[in-house]
Design a protein that fits this description.
By secondary structure, the chain is an alpha/beta fold. It contains five helices and eleven strands.
Length: about 240
């Protein structure tokens, strides 16, 4: 009996340290089937800004108490912000033919535009929907410094698998705690939809367009050089008596 407890402890520790029990999930949106016009040309995609819970290495989801939770056994296979940025740039390029590259820009010729994405929510919600919302910005230094800002709010139904927990709330709404593979699949589908919206400079959200003010022509026209000054008359000083 004295040996039984240490053996059980060792078995439990061995199970916890088993690397095969840790799942790593790819951020890898599907290859786009549709093609759209090239509206961006060459563009640098800044590092995508994610909420803290989405930027951590663990796959997060919303639980029945409304909290956002995660498990160290369910991890993203790469740094989420890096993977999100790289795959979003690739998806935009693949569907539009534009040259969209994640920063830093590696080519000698600078990009014509810069794209910035700020994600406000990237979460598998309790209602069985994966939400990806925020804003994206496209700026162009030339052509008067045109800027394009648009909000996005993408909803992807979470596929319910055998490992998903589903129940009814008091109000009768369905509550789903999706499995990590389902969350990864829904996020990848949401990234593909976001890529399509950025590629077309569209989406269901509102658009804000601004243009940098042009410099007044009076300040941009070079001034004529001033005429040379006439030499001063010579002054002679006589010594005192």
């Amino acid at each position: 009996m004295r040996l039984a407890f240490p053996l059980l402890v060792l078995a439990a520790l061995a199970g916890c340290s088993n690397p095969e029990k840790t799942g790593r999930y790819l951020i890898d949106p599907p290859t786009p089937q549709a093609r759209v016009a090239n509206n961006l040309g060459t563009a640098e995609l800044r590092d995508v800004s994610l909420p803290e819970y989405a930027a951590s290495g663990e796959v997060a989801w919303q639980t029945a108490d409304g909290a956002v939770r995660s498990n160290p056994r369910n991890l993203w296979a790469d740094n989420p912000e890096r993977a999100f940025t790289l795959t979003l740039a690739r998806a935009i390029s693949d569907m539009s033919g534009a040259t969209v590259i994640a920063e830093p820009w590696p080519l000698a010729e600078p990009p014509r535009r810069r794209v910035e994405v700020r994600v406000e929510k990237a979460l598998a919600q309790l209602d069985g929907i994966y939400r990806l919302s925020g804003r994206y910005y496209v700026s162009q230094d030339s052509a008067g410094g045109t800027n394009h800002a648009r909000s996005f709010d993408i909803a992807v139904p979470l596929p319910v698998t055998q490992g998903s927990a589903s129940s009814l709330s008091r109000g009768g709404a369905r509550r789903v705690e999706a499995s990590p593979p389902a969350i990864a699949a829904a996020q990848n589908a949401a990234i593909a939809q976001l890529a399509a919206q950025i590629a077309t400079l569209g989406g269901p959200g509102g658009t804000i367009r601004t243009t940098a003010p042009q410099l007044d022509p009076i300040f941009s026209t070079p001034l004529e050089p001033l005429a040379p000054l006439e030499p001063l008359p010579e002054v002679s000083i006589e010594p005192l008596g």
